[in-house]
Amino acid sequence: MTENIDTSICLTKLTTSDGPLVYRMLQRIPRLENGFYNGAYDLSYDAYKRWLIRQDEISRGINLEKDMVPQTMYWLVVDHIPVGYGKLRHELTDILRETGGNISYSIEPTRRGKGYGTLLLSHLLEEAKKSGQSEAIVTAYNYNFKSIHVAKRNGGINYRITNVKHYFRFQL
User: Fold this and answer.
1) pLDDT tens, position by position, 111-124
2) 3-state helix, strand, coil in the chain (%, to 5)
C-alpha cells in the first residue's frame, strides 16, 4: 500500500513580522552566490528585523536609492518551513536587463536538487503576471547549469548567450 503524503507548498510575500524560521533560512543562503545577493546573510536577529522593514519599503518604492526600482521578496514555504526566496523587480532599467533581469531566486543549500527552484520560479512568474507585467527576464551564469535548466523547465526562451550569461525571456 502506498502512503499518501500531503505536502504544503506556497509562496509568501515578505512581511515585517517574518520571524526566526525565515531568519534561519537566510543565514544558510550565502551572501553572494551565482549572482544572487542575500543582504540578510550574517546579520544579527535585530539587524534582520530592520532589514525586513527596509525591504518592505523598497517593495513600496519608498526611499529608493539612485538606479533602484521597487522589488518585492517572496519566500518559498514547504510544510511551513521556508526553503528559498526570490526577488521580483516591478520594472527594469537598461542596467538591470543586462545584469540580472527582473526575477532572481535562491534555494537554501540543503534543499537543492528537489525541484524547489523550478517551483519557486514558476510562482514568481505567476506573481509577475498578476502584477501586470507582460514579460519577465531571468539571467543565469553560463556555469550555473541548474538555473539554466530551471529557466528552460519554466518555458524560458534563451534569447541571448554571452561569454558570461544566458538570458531568458518569459511571455506572461
Assistant:
1) 999 999 999 999 99
2) 35, 30, 35
| DSSP per-residue string spanning 62-121 | TTPPTT---EEEEEEEETTEEEEEEEEESS--HHHHHHTBSEEEEE-GGGTTSSHHHHHH
Is the pTM for the entire model greater than 0.85?
Answer: yes
- Residue identified by cell 529608493 is 64
- Measure the CA–CA gap between 74 and 82, rounded to whole angstroms: 10
Phi/psi for 23 (5° steps) reads -55, -50
Query: Any idea which residue has 534582520 for its cell?
Result: 48
Amino acid letter, 171: Q
Rounded CA gap, 149 and 137, in Å? 15
pLDDT for 169: 97
Give the separation between CA 139 and CA 161, rounded to whole angstroms: 10
pLDDT at 7 over 50: yes
What is the arrangement of strands in the sheet containing 71-78, beginning at the earlier edge strand? 9-13, 71-78, 81-89, 103-107
